[in-house]
Prior knowledge:
A hairpin with a 6-residue loop joins β4 and β5. The protein is mainly beta. The chain has a 4-stranded antiparallel sheet, with no helix packed on it. A two-stranded antiparallel sheet has the order 1-6.
Amino acid sequence: MKLINSITKQEIKVGDIVISFRGEKCEVCSWSEPRHSDSTGRMYVKSEQYNRGNFYPTVFNCKFV
């Protein structure tokens, strides 16, 4: 399973910079894949605002495929 940007279709890797729907730049630290068909998984990121926060991938226009 891969994590991709829903708009550009580019694969997201650890260390990549992603931008939230609020315009915040964050560095991808890791993620957890969806555990079942109704789950979206989680992304773990860090930024100036967050030492290490976890968010739904849709916050950063991402999804697992």
